[in-house]
Structures are given as C-alpha cells and as structure tokens.
Amino acid sequence: MKKGKEVTTRKGSVVINLSKKITxxxxxxxxxxxxxxxxxxxxxxxxxxxxxxxPRNENSKKRIxxxxxxxxxxxxxxxxxxxxxxxGVNVELYYTVPKxxxxxxxxxxxxFGAGIGLRMVAKRKGMKLSQHxxxxxxxxxxxxxxxxxxxxxxxxxxxxxxx
Length: 163
Hints:
This protein is 37% helix and 28% strand. It is of the alpha+beta class. The chain folds into two domains: 13-95, Beta Polymerase, domain 2, CATH 3.30.460.10; 100-162, 2-Layer Sandwich (Beta Polymerase, domain 3), CATH 3.30.210. The strands form two sheets. It has a five-stranded mixed β-sheet, sandwiched between helices. A three-stranded antiparallel β-sheet has the order 6-7-8. α4 (101-109) packs across α6 (146-152). The longest helix has 14 residues, at 13-26. The model is unreliable at 4-10 (pLDDT under 50).
C-alpha cells in the first residue's frame, strides 16, 4: 500500500526496469541523468520514478517532452520539472544545472524527514538549504555535490539508502 493505493510491481522490478529504459532514452538530450527517490535509496518496492537531469540546452527539454510523450502521457511541466504517466507509473523529471546538481540529488533522494533534518541543521547555522544549494547570507557555499553540502554543514556523509 502506498498513499491508499495497492500497487503490485513484482518486487519493484517493473518500475526499476522502466526507469532504466527511460534514462537510456534521456541520455542523448542531457549532460547528466540520475534516477533518485525510492529507487536510489534501494527501497524494496518502488512505485514511481524520480529522475534528476541536466538538459544539454533549452531545446532539449522540448525534445525530452516529445520523446516521453510517445511512451506515455504528459501530465504537467515547466522549467524546473515535468510529470508523466508511463505504463501506469508516475515519472517525475527534475531539471537542474551543474552548480546545483548535488543539492538537487540530495533534495530528491532523501526521505522526507532526513531532508527536513538537514534543512534544520542549516538554519541553526545561519544557512538555507534547498534543491538549489546551500546558502549563507544569500551566497551559495555548496551545491555541486551532496558530499560538499554535508561537509559544509559539518555532518558526516550519508549515502541515500542510509538517510
């Protein structure tokens, strides 16, 4: 059961295999692509697919939308994210840029509580943490890698499956 709906995914293999197929499709339009969320945390039965990506250019976003619309249904989207329903699976894309790559991975790979905990640590230290980076006095001090953010917060690095 997830969010009141019963979902059968044969131990998540259907969703995981679909995520691999989608990322292969996206690679030609992107400089970086990474599956995040429950799949990256190695959860047993993922029911949706979250992907962080850096498109090659603005035209790439349009081409990504066209390619994935052929596979399923485009639900909504804009400059920062897009949602699709492909083979009965919700697929969310999160667009980012190199200087925000780590912050975006961190935001969409952490469980809800872990993300809030890190944001609280940042706030106590006079900083602000978001999917765009770690900021102090309005200036970005970390964001290109997850490890860089943990280090700047004085916290030991935790891989996604331990968050």
